[in-house]
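Let's do one together. I've listed all components of the complex below, 679 residues spread over two lines.
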Amino acid sequence: MRLPEYVHSLTFRWAVGVAGAFGVCTLLLFGFVYWQTADYVIAAVDTIITADAKANGATTASDLSRFIRQYLEDDPRRVKLAELFTGSGTPSVGNVAELPPGLPIDGMPHTARLARLDNRGRETQATRAIARQLSSGEVFLVGHDTGLLHQVGQVVTRALALGLVPAVCLALLTGTWLSKRAQRRIDEMNRRVQRVVAGEFKERLPVGGYDDPLNRLARIVNAMLDRIERLIGELSSVGDDIAHDLRTPLTRARAMLERGRENATTLQDLSESVDGAIAGLDQSLAIITALLRIAEIDHSRRSAAMTTLRLEEILRAVHELYSPIAEDKGVSLRLDLHDTAAVSGDRDLLLEAVANLVDNAIKFTPEQGAVALRLLQRPDGPVVRVEDTGPGIAAAEREAIWTRFYRSDRSRHAPGVGLGLSLVAAIVKLHGFRLAIVDGPGCRIEIACHVAGA
Amino acid sequence: MAKVLVIEDDEGTAEEIVTALGDRGYILDRAADGVDGLQRARVGGWDVLVVDRMLPELDGLSVIETLRSEGISTPVLVLSALNAVNDRVRGLRAGGDDYLAKPFALSELAARLEALLRRPAEPRATVLRVGPLELDLLSRKACRGRRELELLPREFQLLEYMMRREGQVLTRAMLLENVWNYRFVPQTNLVDVHIGRLRRKVDNPDEPPMILSVRGVGFMLRAAS
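Okay, and this is what the predicted structure of the assembly comes out as:
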């Protein structure tokens, strides 16, 4: 038989578990009540029969016979039992048919089933009974019915049935309801997730008012979907940007070649057109190469090429490399090394990252301006800072500049493929460093590093 | 004529390389997988090998390692779609002599092959001479004729590299790699600026120029004619 699906749900299992535990506790409680009551009843009966067994001090068979007749006369509820058995075990006076075989004849109260024999016939009764032997060999037996115990048991069982069964049923019903409700919500979530999988990235999971785990999960998933939607948006806009940025130089190359074919009259004219076309194609290739490189760095892991290297050496190298460029542009390039620091990294990539930042800084700094390359020491590690006296980056643009192909309106005219900062971001991320733009005059970009070995 | 073996599985790339190098007067043969390539390389008679990093049957690095272990020291240029630093290091460690990442310009490939074919004849010479230019590696002095050139350390290195490869086309990437030991494509025409400074010191306006720009490829130093 196949069980319905909700039976396997955690909520339902919890409900079954709680119902089970409740049942066991109730059973134990009622058992204890019954046991205590029975104890009390038996103790009371024992007191009675111990007194009765003394038979008012009678010791001889004839005295006892008289006592028994008198004793049994006054018993409207038919709870008293007494008998005098001869030495051979035959009943002589009283209402008990036979001496039960298991009953010890020791003058102490014991539980026994006695066969009552009176004018109404023979009937077995549950009793507490005392048997003792007379010096003349006869056995005197006194018993008292304990049917009351049976009644107590019945009362307890009935109470149990009336209380426990509905409680357990209620627990199971609640469990079923809760798990069915959860199941419905999960089903709804699944339907929506399937829609997302099918490509509807606007879809979100339903979130109720309460702060239960399912709602919290839905909120987490929704936040993730927000991020995915944004990334996909960026991706498609990157696609558009790539197409746009590639089209410009390719169009130029095509125009050059066309002009060469139609207008060139000398080899000189033709080779000029071809050179122009090659320059256009080179730019397209540069864009593609840069994109491939970013993708490659994005996908590579921290690798064996990471060695311990000195940041000040990298800064010195970049400074040396760019000094003539800055000078040609009339910009001063200062190197400010107050400290030394070793980090674990890939020399070529870090050089490239710092060089790109300096390249940008020089590009965007007007003549007579200054670019500074600094190595700072912070409590959480060394920081490479590139600052310039250029126009700076507006707060609104700070997020966007790391995206591929982003060119601020002010930089549209500057040469470059607009991928430099994305490349820097990719390299910094690969190293587990942090990249930040800090406030200040001009533009200040920082790479916060970890110390080697940390 | 120099004989070049191209071991490259990609039909398009191989054809481009063969055509372009053929135009430049090389004698070419091509192998399309590692096993075939290794066999042909073993036969010998090649001046330089162009080996793709990823090859069917036997990958490029294994081909090079095998050749080197057999004592075949033909210069090898490794081609690769991967530009990761790791990969370059592995390529050179396996016994490659130079490394070029795809996509590359054919002029870059040609310049690098030329450099491999014409290794500096006397690497231990302490004085280099090209025409009127003289470079003393011990005293770190540079002269053009009787005029002494005041060079910064890096300019000295740059001039040394160019003089050792007199008459060869040197691309910007080659200069960055070999003079500065940098392996990236800068956004700005860095190399041009550095060459420009060196040129102003080497070639006075009244002297015939020795440092020449090779359009679309790079630079060349040669004795003024």
